[in-house]
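Technical annex B. To support the medicinal chemistry partners, we prepared a structural model of the target in complex with PMV, based solely on the information shown next.
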Amino acid sequence: MLSEVLLVSAPGKVILHGEHAVVHGKVALAVSLNLRTFLRLQPHSNGKVDLSLPNIGIKRAWDVARLQSLDTSFLEQGDVTTPTSEQVEKLKEVAGLPDDCAVTERLAVLAFLYLYLSICRKQRWTKEDLELINKWAFQGERMIHGNPSGVDNAVSTWGGALRYHQGKISSLKRSPALLILLTNTKVPRNTRALVAGVRNRLLKFPEIVAPLLTSIDAISLECERVLGEMGEAPAPEQYLVLEELIDMNQHHLNALGVGHASLDQLCQVTRARGLHSKLTGAGGGGCGITLLKPGLEQPEVEATKQALTSCGFDCLETSIGAPGVSIHSATSLDSRVQQALDGL
Ligand code: PMV
């Protein structure tokens, strides 16, 4: 233990269709992105070990001996899903986090240590290990928005393209490698409040809002069907269908009350260039996705990104369907990732 570098990455994700509706028992389609977050645990010759989580700005160092003092007791654990209160106390002691450490950092470091001691020392994860990671990611989601559907943590754990329905997850077979723009409007939003807002609207206007949710469900199902068809025999008309589905869902999400002026702006800027966008996730700001159809020239993509950047947004071009959470060998990372891990 602790003699080798541990490198782990997880993909970003977006919900293609079904956000909010999924909370009310409808189908959602979620996909992983080729944009990854990394974590490294690196031992040094001075007897220290460094934890680096560059995407959330966390760096910690511990004595190897200190971590090793926990090793055997954690190894003997049967059920690793829930730490006992004694274990949590021990983890806190070993983590030695300062009093002024932010709650999110404290929880991230403790969750990391617990998972590390439970499963990370393996070279390869089993299905059960991945299920454990998924459960922990779900708990993280709960901290952020109270009553999450579970779709976000599932897609980051398993990767690929997933259909999520009432807690049941299945992979989409043969979905195409779509290219998208992921645009962050940088408008902060509160997922918990947005989810509660949709619930209130549903209670206030059941006859109006329930059909919207049913329609979003049908959009997800139609998208799933088209993606399956594209995986087998891609044709340009299928992109037109995907674009129409994007537009209809965006209007429904506005009707649910989770739109925002920044997202309208995003849709208008891309629409002016013949591209179709919708919000992804909770809405109320946050991120939107734009479908890049095949045949689009790179200068046009760059001009669209530039136009979105000029609105004050961050815009990334990426593809969907990346692998889920993974262990890497220290030599397999590209130099930019190495630099980010070193540079904190
Ligand atoms: O904003 P995000 O990426 O956390 O997604 C929220 C998606 C919702 O459907 C609104 C809530 C959920 O838990 O599924």
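Notes passed to the chemistry partners:
Residues 116 and 155 are 21 Å apart (CA to CA).
The pocket of PMV is lined by residues 15, 19-20, 22-23, 148-149, 151-152, 191, 195, 281-282, 286 (CB under 6 Å).
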